[in-house]
């Protein structure tokens, strides 16, 4: 009786174990089936396996004309609509939804790359000549899949440029170095800084942007830049703004820049008022990556006073041309040319502002207002 009971218990155990095993196999098969079925459609239905980028930390030159889609993921241009009549610069809004991390995203106009992004979202201004144009947005993810979207526009009017840039969303910043180790704002340490937009006071138009500067490290700096957009149809730039410093004696220097990049070249119009070292306005030599002194004096600006600044630049072939400067009601002719920076593959038109700390890293704040970039 005991033997029979034990045998019966063994059979029940064996049956239970078998059931557990079958259930386990079924679950495993189900997970496997769901995994296959759960692949993104562009991956599951792709007849080939793309070759992923060998090194995603290196940005390759733009492919021109743009590459075709390769088992593309969702990519949509929401603005401008197909066949729209627009002004230049025109707002272009696009979003990519890759299954993997984005590698690069670009805007092409008539087959030429004019704007690069490292994010899957674009909301920028694109300069184009009057007339009919094809706008194409292309994105590649780190797995090598490529998506494309196209729209056609008619540019009717050329606007002066983009204004109230201090209030636009999307400013970027960095201190001594970028996350990948490359030099950014240079200096001897990491600054403590932040951007606070929408300030009603002090302000000229009721909405300025405050840039703070401080930190424990002497001679540390912070660079802020705004990627306005892109385009190769404009070559003359006017950077027009007002600034206000709460402690006029604290900055080591203040820097105001415009950059244009396309076709593997970057034209950097870099300028800084170097209060403490040279006492002059400096301009950037892009090819040799050094500051060059001008004859224009730079002395500390009075505290809590709005100062008007206007720089005029132009792109001439592969050269940058610093035309003239107007600051604090004084006008200066610069008329200086330098060679642009080659082998640059991040297409963009942007403006920048940098705050530099002095030997004590005295804290100070700067407000920018009515920041405008005009171009033609």
Structural class: mainly beta
How would you sum up the major sheet? 11 strands, mixed
Instruction: Report mean pLDDT, rounded to a whole number.
Output: 91
Summarize the amount of helix as a percent range: 10-25%
Q: H/E order of the elements?
A: HHEEEEEEEEEEEEEEEEEEEEEEEE
How does this model look, in words?
- The chain is mainly beta and 376 residues long.
- The protein is globular and about 65 Å long.
- The chain has helices spanning 2-37, 41-44; strands at 75-79, 84-88, 90-96, 102-109, 112-117, 121-126, 131-141, 146-158, 161-162, 172-174, 195-199, 208-213, 221-230, 236-245, 253-262, 265-274, 280-285, 290-297, 306-316, 319-327, 330-339, 341-342, 348-356, 364-375.
- The protein folds into two domains: 75-158, Sandwich (Immunoglobulin-like); 161-375, Jelly Rolls (Sandwich).
- The model is unreliable at 1-37 (pLDDT under 50).
- The strands form three sheets. Strands 1, 3, 6, 10, 13, 15, 16, 17, 18, 22 and 23 form an eleven-stranded mixed β-sheet that branches. Strands 9, 11, 12, 14, 19, 20, 21 and 24 form an eight-stranded antiparallel β-sheet that branches.
